[in-house]
Design goal:
Layout lengths: L5 H14 L12 E14 L6 H20 L6 E3 H9 L9 E5 L2 E2 L3 E3 L4 E5 L4 E7 L11 E11 L5 H15 L8 E3 H8 L5 E14 L4 E4 L4 E3 L4 E10 L5
């Protein structure tokens, strides 16, 4: 078993007691977990465009499909990359989703067998690269890109969330003023650009920057990630969420 919460342990113990013959002692223990990380390098969707909220919803559904498939693997079971891609493409809402898989920190090829006595735990979140559309129009000079920032912060000074939102928006607008199509940008660069140690502390794990191009491409940038800009960026919205107990 891979879940070792008090409830699941109690359920297993009760079930064993119900089934074991009288006088027979059953020895059992939870399988030792092994972490598997899966990233979708890029996501190709049918059509020419979808609302950003729909894309986010689909990305969440794809992460759930991966979790259900991977965490159902028993000790000794085999994780096959082609089979997992088929799970993602099976709904007809995805055209291509190349995967990068690591197990216990090591890269996985076409298949990987769960070691005996081990259970699979999926690293979350599932990382998803740039999202694009099969019918998006070709553009010679790059697209226009709108960026949304959803930040989780702990307030440190007298400024409230609204003031932090305005200051962050100005800092980001300055950063993107001279960026061009094809330029790379990292989460670290954005976090550094908005840093204001007198006003707030950024929860990097809970924060995300979203990029939506007018040709339909969509990408999310989280801690540790890099993205390539489809064109000049306009900061559309900054939403600050104050962490619980954070001011």
């Amino acid at each position: 078993m891979s879940e070792t919460t008090p409830d699941t342990m109690a359920q297993v113990r009760r079930r064993i007691d119900e089934l074991r013959p009288a006088g027979v002692q059953v020895l059992w223990q939870a399988a030792e977990p092994i972490e598997v990380a899966i990233a979708i390098e890029r996501l190709l969707l049918p059509g020419g465009s979808r609302p950003a909220d729909d894309v986010r919803r689909l990305q969440g559904e794809l992460a759930d499909r991966i979790a259900r498939h991977v965490e159902a693997l028993p000790p000794g079971g085999t994780l096959r990359k082609a089979q997992l891609v088929a799970v993602l493409l099976g709904g007809g809402d995805v055209l291509d989703a190349p995967l990068v898989i690591t197990a216990a920190g090591a890269a996985v090829g076409d298949s990987w067998q769960v070691p005996a006595g081990r259970s699979v735990v999926l690293r979350r979140p599932v990382l998803i690269g740039e999202t694009s559309f099969a019918d998006q129009p070709a553009t010679g000079g790059g697209s226009r890109v709108s960026m949304d920032a959803e930040l989780v912060v702990t307030l440190l000074g007298a400024a409230g969330a609204a003031a932090v939102e305005q200051a962050v928006k100005q800092q980001l607008a300055g950063l993107f003023q001279n960026q061009t199509a094809g330029a790379s940008i990292t989460f670290d660069q954005l976090a550094t650009a908005v840093r204001d140690e007198a006003s707030f502390a950024l929860d990097r794990a809970g924060s995300v920057f979203s990029f939506e191009a007018d040709d339909g491409r969509f990408d999310e940038l989280r801690d540790g990630e890099t993205t390539r800009l489809a064109g000049p960026v306009t900061v559309r919205r900054v939403l600050v969420q104050v962490a619980e107990g954070g001011g």
